Structure formats: structure tokens, C-alpha cells
Amino acid sequence: MAQSGFQPKAQFGYRRHADQDRIVGNISQYPVVIVGAGPVGLSLAIDLAQRGQGVVLLDDADRIGEGSRAICFSKRSLEFWDRLGIGSRMVDKGVVWSVGRIFHGASQLYQFDLLPEQGHKRPAFINLQQFHAEAYLVDRVQELAGVDLRWRNKVIGLEQRNDRAILTIETPDGPYRIGANYVVACDGARSSLRQMAGAEFAGKVFEDQFLIADVRMTAEFPTERWFWFDPPFHAGRSALLHRQPDDIWRIDLQLNRYADPVIEKQPENVRPRIARMLGHDKFEFEWISLYKFQCRRMDKFIHGRVIFAGDAAHQVSPFGARGANSGLEDAENLAWKLDRVLRGISPGALLESYHLERSAAADENIRESTRSTDFMAPNSHQEARLRKAALSLAKETEFGKRMVNAGRLSVPTIYDSPLSTADRDAWRGGPRPGASMLDAPIAAPAGEPTYLTDAFIGCGTRFTLLAFGNGTAVDPPDGIGVIRVGGEGGFSDSTGLAAARYDAEPGSAYLLRPDGYVAARFRHPTRTALDAALARAAGNN
């Protein structure tokens, strides 16, 4: 259902491409073809184009998707979008929030703040309808000569060869074929590429159903995430309320597993439920949908020359905002690795680290999502009794609050990176190898205030050495960006937050990957140690 007066109405016309006029056997060959122009495919295309790669992006539709769908985008996703040149536009339109409240019945159990400390450029989360995010990403794509976005181009055939993949594409003018060094499937949970590759998508489908209603209304509720267990307006079930831009509110209501989706989605049946929740019926429907939880993933994210990302590779329940944010982490993880492999400066084996890291992240997200779902919709009398006890304890104790699970919110995955004894002994804090970089306020040598994440963007699309001054300087390898904090000519850390968050002493240094993850850290770096760390991270050891 889409009665929206606030949704972008962008519809993109099909255009015939010169590739469709090539004779059989003389097809065009591209470095990368991405299938699916959702947030993941669009973001990946932009990242690759900014690295100088030519990308063909195919989508079988001719418009931005209808309905708000994903709405919660994390700080990590916003920092990624900053690197793509669209973070500010997302934040300016989105609703910023960090506080959540958990209720049991009519009483509040507790509240939490996802970003209690100051000194970060981006908020913990924004709420922004997915169609807005997609529209802004499409605008950015259209600014880049390196992305060839083709609407109403549906992949209907896949042929894998040792050195490339061949795609057959259906259009309004009939089929044509193109080749690619690599194909990235970002075509969603019902991925046709996954079926063509013969890959399994195993996992669990939860039987309880949830109703989503986006409603337009004027309300004075604070900009927070509100979650209820057994609320008086929806007895025995759970409910969720989120604010979105343009006076739109997202409401999720748990239904029983036997509810008839056709009947439950009828506006005349949804309206009384929402009216009981709000205490009035002065609202308009924008979108209504019904869904079941699914937690599934592929066994391998790489099948020959086809790489899977986003919902095509893994699927989780929506509670915790782990779906879209995890897909965007796939894109930032894959882009720099694919770029290096295509340029021949890293071996193809580097791509295996994409599967290893992101499949581990998928396992983590599925594990957390499954725990949330089991707590919200217990599968047995024993689970129901445990939940009842946890909710009761949460009113009185801190450990009881930690047992309540209303959807653990998405956080960046820490990739497995074995720590040496020297590393463990030398560091009391700071992001460990495999963790994402932390932001902090700093000032440029001329005095202008900025952030570490902005300084990282200023180093381009490469590995970067973050060095804390007044220690022994070391010349970095060629082609490595450098951010110096402290010392002559470096950024200043007047608040001390950068040094504190990185547990920095004079001479400390971090080697950051092109996606902003820590590749290595050093108390006293040497050129030999830097070279070795860079070789490991780039797959060249």
C-alpha cells in the first residue's frame, strides 16, 4: 500500500544502450557489473567509481522502491556515506535519535542512550525512509561518470567462466549479453542471481507475524525509540514506535502466527489497532505491510565470479536495524578489496577475506536477531516464563535490564584478528585490530575544527597511518595517507578525546584500512613493522 504524498515520485525511463546493438559473440566486457539498485548496490557502485573503476549497475525496475522499508541508519553507515559524499544530505533530511525507552504494560522499565558521549560528527542513528536514501544515492550516481545505471534491465541468465561471467539481460527491446570480471549480486532476499548460481539460503523462518503501518500525523512524542511488551492497547503482544521525517510515524505491532495477512492488512482493520495505541484516529495511512521474521544466510558469499552482498547474502529480522546497515558494511568491505584485485596490486585471494569477515558478521547479526525474536515471541512455555521473569527483574535490578531484549541495536562488527602478546600487553584501550576507527574532534593546523573521520576522508581511498605526535617519526610506505595528531604541523587534540579514545602515547600509531577499520597498531612503529602489516592487510604476504 502506498498512498504517500511525501515519497519521491522519481521514475526513470528505460534507455537503449549500445551494448544491445553488438553482434552475437562480440559482447562488451566490464570490470564490475552490480545487480540491484537498492542502498547496498548504489553505495557499492559509488564507492567503486570514486576509486576509478567503471561500473555497470542493473535494476529490473524503473523507479525508487515504494514504502519506507528500512528506516534506521547507524552512525557507521552515515560515516560510510560521508565518504561517498552524501552523509550530510541523509542527516539533514533524517530524524536524529539516540535514546530508547522500554515499557512493560503501561510502565517504563528503563531507557538507554546509544551515544552518551560528545565529540562525534555523526549521531548514533537517524530515521530516514529507504526511498529517500535511495533517491539521494541515485542523485550521487548520476554525478559520477564511472557508473552506468541501466533501469529495466533484468538479469535472466548467468554463465560462469574461469576468467569472467556472462550475463543475459532482458529489456523492453529484447535480451542482450555482457561480460564482467566480477558480478556483485545486490538483488535482495529473493535474489535471482543466487538461484542461478545454485546457492543455498539456509536458516530459520519465525512463524509470528508483525504488522507495519506508516502513518502521517502531528504528534508531540519525543524523537526516541519506544518499545512495549504487553502494552494495554495491544495486550499480550509487543509494539514499537519510531518517528520519521515529514510527520510520518512507523508503528510495528506483533500479531499471532495464525493471523490472515490479507485480512490484517486491510486499512479498515488496521485503523482500530492504531487508534487504540494513539488514543485517537486523526492519522492517515502511508504504507501498510505484514511480514514474518527470517534469519538466513548463504554458506559462501563468493561463487566463482559472482559475489553476494546485502539481503542477497544474508537476511535478519528488522528489529535492531541490522539488515540495511549490515548490507552497507558489506559494500564498504568489498569495494576497496575488489578495486585492488582489479588493479592487480592485490591477489584475488584478498576477496576471500570479504567472505570470511562478512559471513562472520552475518552470523553475529543472525545470532543477535534470533535472540531478540525469541525474546519478543517465545516459542515455548519455558521461554515465556524466562521472559516474564526477566521483565519482572528489570523493574528492580540492573542485571534484569540487561536480560531484556527488545532488539539489540546494530553496531559495527569487530573482525577476528589475532592479537599478539605484545599488543595485549601494550594497550589498555583503543580500537583493536579488526575494529572500526573511532571518531573524535580535532583541529587542522590552521585552527579550523574538524573530525578524525573527515581527516580520514581527506586521505582519499587508500590505507592511512594515524600517528600521534611528539614521538619518533617513521616514514610510511609509498601511497599511504598520513594523519598526524600533535607535533609540529599536525592536527591538534585540544579536548584530549582523540588520544583518550585511541589510548595514545607519544609515538603511537594505527594503520587504517581503506574502509576505516584498524589493520594494525603500534606503540613504536618501524618501517619494517608497517610494511609487514600493510602486506598482511592487502593480501600480499
What would you say about this model in short?
29% of the residues lie in helices and 27% in strands. It is of the alpha+beta class and 541 residues long.
Written overview of the protein:
The chain is α+β, with helices and mostly antiparallel strands and 541 residues long. The chain has a domain of 117 residues: Glutaredoxin (3-Layer(aba) Sandwich), CATH 3.40.30. Helices cover 29% and strands 27% of the residues. The protein is built from 15 helices and 25 strands. The strands form five sheets. Strands 1, 2, 8, 9, 10, 11, 17 and 18 form an eight-stranded mixed sheet that branches. An eight-stranded mixed sheet has the order 6-5-13-14-15-12-16-19, with helices on both faces. The radius of gyration is 24 Å and the shape is globular.
The number of distinct helices, counting runs of at least 4 residues, comes to 15
CATH class annotation of the domain at 421-537: Alpha Beta
- Average pLDDT taken over every residue: 91
Principal-axes shape call: globular
Largest sheet: 8 strands, mixed
Estimate what percentage of residues fall within beta strands: 25-35%
Helix content: 25-40%
Distance between the termini: 53 Å
| Uncertain ranges | 1-6
Assign the structural class, choosing from mainly alpha, mainly beta, alpha/beta, alpha+beta, or little secondary structure: alpha+beta
- Please count the beta strands (DSSP E, at least 2 residues each): 25
In CATH, the topology of the domain at 421-537 is named Glutaredoxin
Query: In CATH terms, what is the architecture of the domain at 421-537?
Result: 3-Layer(aba) Sandwich
Radius of gyration, CA atoms, in whole angstroms: 24 Å
